[in-house]
């Protein structure tokens, strides 16, 4: 009888796995069809797409409803997508969307880790992890990671470690441990910061070395490794473990994914601590010659110059030669990057309620700077942008427009205004707020911006000539680059 039960259990399990496999194949087939119809220009394919999405939206399968939601979102039909999200939560009260909504509504906004811990225990009773599988478990890692970092910030080490060790998905442990390490670091706990940065780095390295399946999750896990080597090297440097720090800084400065003026500077600082000044000078010289050295790097380079050469004699002349080379290299770089495509027209409202239309500025060189109050790199670029605004303040044919977008609060205009005033910036700010119907930030979407800060330089004829993303280097170098773009755009 026992053998018969085992056989029946085995058959049931086999049947279940076959059913799951069939459902997965069916979904994959549906995705293939949807992708084909989505990219097609044929009217009949658009009809097939619309009909299929209606069927999926009415499905009794949560995964099929998810598919409809995702494709409506990709079609920029945010209204239908949001409506389906609400319907799915009601239709599947024990499903993934309901679970995720409960986490957002009942846990994340709580102020203390103790409150979050209490809510978490009630939440997992309602949505047991055993009811879900695979990457769908990641939300549990998000929650436990939030609790762990909260306790680390409060210097409750035991609780922080307890919740940090609850992470379930290997591919996300690098991120989870990295976040916990950062919280320990900010709380002044270098010992545990070092432990968890090392754990994060070692987990990410397994994926980076390609020892696990070639999946998107594996690629995500691997992507964190290069940056973690730099971070871990910094922690070791602060612990004055210079020899060990140098090993990881060397990995960062030679890895194509992290090799940069920043990683060179890190390597040079460790060499300086080991009194290997000539090697440090050579490494930092690379950073300075790249044109992306910030003010701290430039100051350290001068200090090393004096140590290596014995005095500051000739430094100013050498620095001028380097700058001349940087400008020449920048010119070559921008010659290759220059484009020419019509800038889409738009009308946006400024902080005082006045409407500004791009086409009304034809005849001027216009610089668009997409930003948000929550964007650290955007705000880091603003001192340089203020320098650029000041440089052209008396030129009526150059116009800077700072477009606030991708808001995360209900009061974006007030937030933007408060921030600009608090920093005393003299910027003309326009608001690219979400459309109430589509929930899309139209201008940033029309300009196909994938990340901010993102800057566009538009020539007097209304053509985009340059698109610059991100920010690094000194303020002086940033102004040089923007100025050269403006001059080149003017000349056409």
Task: Pick out its properties.
Serine Threonine Protein Phosphatase 5, Tetratricopeptide repeat; eight-stranded mixed β-sheet; single chain; Glutaredoxin; alpha+beta
Report on the architecture of this protein.
The chain has 492 residues and is an alpha+beta fold. Among the domains are: 224-336, Serine Threonine Protein Phosphatase 5, Tetratricopeptide repeat (Alpha Horseshoe), CATH 1.25.40.10; 341-491, Glutaredoxin, CATH 3.40.30. Helices cover 64% and strands 8% of the residues. The protein is built from 21 helices and eight strands. It has an eight-stranded mixed sheet, covered by helices on one side. Strand 2 (347-350) and strand 3 form a beta hairpin. It is globular. The chain starts with a helix and ends with a helix. Residues 1-22 have low confidence and may be disordered.
Structural class comes to: alpha+beta
Q: How many β strands by DSSP?
A: 8
Bin the strand percentage: 5-15%
Helix content: 55-70%
How far the N terminus sits from the C terminus, by CA atoms, comes to 87 Å
Q: What would the principal axes of the Cα set say about the shape?
A: globular
Uncertain residue segments? 1-22
Report the order of strands and helices.
HHHHHHHHHHHHHHHHHEEEEHEHEHEEH
Q: Mind summarizing the main beta sheet? A: 8 strands, mixed
Mean pLDDT: 90
Strand order of the largest sheet: 1-8-7-4-5-6-2-3
The number of helical segments is: 21
State the CATH architecture of the domain at 341-491.
3-Layer(aba) Sandwich
CATH class of the domain at 341-491: Alpha Beta
CATH superfamily of the domain at 341-491: Glutaredoxin
What's the gyration radius in Å? 27 Å
CATH topology of the domain at 341-491: Glutaredoxin
